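Letters spell out the chain; the tokens describe the backbone. To illustrate:

===
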Amino acid sequence: MSVDPKQQRKDTAAALEKKKQQLAELRLRKQQSTSSSSPSVPKKEDLEAILSSVGIDTTTPQSPTISSSGGGGADDDTSHGEAISSSSSTVRSSETVVTSNRRRMNLAIQFNVIEIDITPKETPTYSRSTQTDTQTTTQTTSDDSSDPRLNSRNRNLRTSNKTHNDEDFDSSGAGSNTNNEGDASNTTTSVASDFKEEPQPPSIPELSVEEKDKILASESFRDFFDRTSRIVDRALYLSESLDIMEDFKEADSEEGPAESTKRAKLKATLFDDRWSKHRSITDLAWSIKHPELTLAAYSAHEISLTTSDADGVVLLWNINNFYQKPEFIFNCQSGVMTAQFSKFHPTMVVGGTYSGQIVLWDTRAKAMPVQRTPLSAVGHTHPVYSLAIVGSTNANNLISISTDGKLCVWSLENLGLPTESLELTNKPQKAISTTAGPVAVTSLSFPEGEVNTFFVGSEEGAIFQGHRHGSTTGISERYEGHFGPVTSTDFHPARGNIDFSHLFLSSSTDWTCKLWSSKTGTQALYSFEDSTDYVYDARWSPTHPAVFATGDGSGYLDLWDLNEDPEAPIVKQRASQKPLNRLVWSADGRSIIAGDSAGHVYFYDVGDVAVPDANEWKRFEEVLEQMTAAKSQVKPLDDD
């Protein structure tokens, strides 16, 4: 029959409580007998009467000095021992005599028990639970060991407590000891059973090979693994945030403070062996919603033109974690010539291809496009080098233009058919021998906030102004100045207390970059001729009114500040051994990324170069006035 552990613990506690009560009563009686005892020596007749009442024969002669250990012979010693034994047993077994004859019993106890058998306890008393607490004993032992001076005294005290504890159990009877042993055994058993009842961890079932393959092939597992692997990659990058090679002993005088603020520091090079190798960067862009996310568009593979590697690629990189693989990888069946994030749809990426298709990717979907335009005469049949998204959140359109001069307007909700189309035709000019024909467009730009007027660069070196609607639909103005194909055009961001939205930059293969104004005629305001190779891209700073960047065929990244020096760049840095095809600034103007013809993306920190002071707009306005005045003094060429 099993015993309930809880009931055993209750019985043990009750028995211990009963023993404590008995010990307390015994100590109380001893204290009362001590306080009420008289120092006078009782008479012999009274002692004999007390001994006779408890059944002790008084005829045997007893020595009046019982506490003495001196001589008296063998008979005296024997009678002495018998008297002590009888007296002790009588006091322990008969409580009624002590109660009924308290005064005389106190005298007998004082004379026989206190002086001979039972000594008064002067040590502190403890409860049963405290005396048997293992944790307290262990702590006391450790405390004693810390102070050697207390070791001897504490050991004697614990020995004395143990002796008195044993005496208390002896006074309670043998039956109580037996019960205590049983209670202790039961308590130990209950504690052991509690440990055995601890819950075991659940066992993980072993999966078969078929089950493992099924899980690995499931779509949910692939999504989970792709998401968690990116998180792990980002976490691993955190340990790389410190420059462990930094030399704190290096003197600051080696680089002056003026030079340190006028330089571009390379932070990272973004390159993937699988997708970037043997491809050229064709476009770059920053995400509007996520400032740390950048886009890089790549051309077709230069070697394996007959394999799947020839497909176009768009990679999305996280500049805060540039040691990992790309965040997203998008593919299509033709080389991507231009790509950008949608202004009003943060999860969408739109791209123009060499085949003329417009493709749309979604970061929430797979690597292939979710939408694409048809390869037919209703759309583009020539390469699309430029895209633009104009409008507002509620009404926006995608504008695309191809090298055959066809401009199409699309709705991102449906790329099956363009909502508008326009053929850009070059008008004959008297000054130069030109004939009417389609404009071979290489770039497309809209002024800030404009949805109707646009500017395009062409392969013949001219820049054309056009309109989507109105009486001047199509080409309306022609800007002459370059002697080679125009590689890029970019309008001023027009952020500040003075409006510079009429200014725009152009770059060309004639080794120059030019500044134009749509308000002061069709001639360039200024020509920047510091480069010794093709200039492939020119981009205004989004924060500083007078700062822009250029990239050329020699791999140089140049930063210009027209308020400081319009003749030479304030920073000229060799970024690559290959031509720099594209540039783009970050929204805060402190970073810039550049892509080369070998598929590398370089992430630069330009520091305070493009951080403007309050008077920069006024200074730039004065610089423009000087450029306009100098231009008016130059006589135009005669017709002959």
Notes: The longest helix spans residues 5-36.
